[in-house]
Amino acid sequence: MDPDDPQERFLSALAEAAGTPPFGPDEAAAVLDLARVTAHRTQRRFAPLTTYALGLAIGATDAPADALGRVARIREVIGIVERLDAS
Protein backbone atom coordinates (compact mmCIF):
# COMPACT_ATOMS: atom_id res chain seq x y z
CA MET A 1 0.00 0.00 0.00
CA ASP A 2 1.17 3.49 -0.82
CA PRO A 3 0.72 5.52 2.40
CA ASP A 4 0.63 8.72 0.32
CA ASP A 5 -2.35 7.60 -1.76
CA PRO A 6 -5.57 8.83 -0.10
CA GLN A 7 -7.72 6.27 -1.95
CA GLU A 8 -5.54 3.38 -0.79
CA ARG A 9 -5.56 4.68 2.79
CA PHE A 10 -9.34 5.04 2.68
CA LEU A 11 -9.92 1.59 1.18
CA SER A 12 -7.59 0.01 3.73
CA ALA A 13 -9.31 1.74 6.65
CA LEU A 14 -12.73 0.85 5.21
CA ALA A 15 -11.81 -2.82 4.87
CA GLU A 16 -10.43 -2.90 8.40
CA ALA A 17 -13.55 -1.24 9.82
CA ALA A 18 -15.83 -3.60 7.87
CA GLY A 19 -13.77 -6.68 8.69
CA THR A 20 -13.35 -7.54 5.04
CA PRO A 21 -10.33 -8.08 2.84
CA PRO A 22 -9.17 -4.87 1.18
CA PHE A 23 -10.06 -4.38 -2.45
CA GLY A 24 -7.97 -2.75 -5.09
CA PRO A 25 -8.23 0.26 -7.34
CA ASP A 26 -9.97 -1.63 -10.16
CA GLU A 27 -12.77 -2.74 -7.86
CA ALA A 28 -13.00 0.75 -6.35
CA ALA A 29 -13.25 2.27 -9.83
CA ALA A 30 -15.99 -0.18 -10.81
CA VAL A 31 -18.03 0.56 -7.66
CA LEU A 32 -17.60 4.30 -8.20
CA ASP A 33 -18.72 3.87 -11.82
CA LEU A 34 -21.79 1.99 -10.60
CA ALA A 35 -22.61 4.82 -8.19
CA ARG A 36 -22.08 7.42 -10.94
CA VAL A 37 -24.24 5.61 -13.48
CA THR A 38 -26.97 5.04 -10.90
CA ALA A 39 -26.94 8.68 -9.81
CA HIS A 40 -27.21 9.94 -13.39
CA ARG A 41 -29.52 7.27 -14.78
CA THR A 42 -32.02 7.15 -11.93
CA GLN A 43 -32.09 9.35 -8.86
CA ARG A 44 -28.92 10.42 -7.09
CA ARG A 45 -30.19 9.05 -3.78
CA PHE A 46 -30.29 5.54 -5.26
CA ALA A 47 -26.49 5.41 -5.73
CA PRO A 48 -25.61 4.36 -2.16
CA LEU A 49 -28.53 1.93 -2.11
CA THR A 50 -27.31 0.32 -5.33
CA THR A 51 -23.75 -0.09 -4.10
CA TYR A 52 -25.00 -1.47 -0.78
CA ALA A 53 -27.27 -3.97 -2.55
CA LEU A 54 -24.37 -5.03 -4.75
CA GLY A 55 -22.20 -5.60 -1.68
CA LEU A 56 -24.92 -7.70 -0.07
CA ALA A 57 -25.36 -9.72 -3.25
CA ILE A 58 -21.65 -10.37 -3.69
CA GLY A 59 -21.30 -11.32 -0.04
CA ALA A 60 -24.30 -13.65 -0.05
CA THR A 61 -23.66 -15.53 -3.28
CA ASP A 62 -20.97 -17.55 -4.88
CA ALA A 63 -19.40 -14.40 -6.24
CA PRO A 64 -16.10 -14.69 -8.03
CA ALA A 65 -13.24 -14.93 -5.56
CA ASP A 66 -10.86 -12.94 -7.73
CA ALA A 67 -10.87 -9.20 -8.25
CA LEU A 68 -11.26 -9.48 -12.03
CA GLY A 69 -14.37 -11.61 -11.60
CA ARG A 70 -15.88 -9.17 -9.12
CA VAL A 71 -15.13 -6.24 -11.41
CA ALA A 72 -16.81 -8.10 -14.28
CA ARG A 73 -19.89 -8.69 -12.09
CA ILE A 74 -20.02 -5.01 -11.14
CA ARG A 75 -19.79 -4.08 -14.82
CA GLU A 76 -22.76 -6.40 -15.51
CA VAL A 77 -24.78 -4.54 -12.88
CA ILE A 78 -23.76 -1.21 -14.44
CA GLY A 79 -25.16 -2.47 -17.75
CA ILE A 80 -28.45 -3.33 -16.05
CA VAL A 81 -28.66 0.10 -14.39
CA GLU A 82 -27.91 1.81 -17.71
CA ARG A 83 -30.97 0.12 -19.22
CA LEU A 84 -33.32 1.21 -16.41
CA ASP A 85 -36.07 3.66 -17.19
CA ALA A 86 -34.94 6.92 -15.59
CA SER A 87 -38.46 8.17 -14.93
What does this structure look like?
By secondary structure, the protein is mainly α. The protein has a domain at 24-82. It has helices at residues 6-18, 25-41, 46-60, 67-82. Helix 2 packs across helix 3 and helix 2 runs parallel beside helix 4. The chain is globular and about 40 Å long. The N and C termini lie far apart (42 Å). 16% of the residues are buried.
Tell me about the largest β-sheet: none
Quantity of strands, as a count: 0
> What would the principal axes of the Cα set say about the shape?
globular
* Portion in beta strands: under 5%
Mean pLDDT rating: 86
**How would you spell out the order of helices and strands?**
HHHH
Radius of gyration: 14 Å
The structure class reads mainly alpha
Count of helices?
4
> N- to C-terminal separation?
42 Å
Stretches where pLDDT is under 50 for at least 5 consecutive residues are: none
Residue share in helix: over 70%
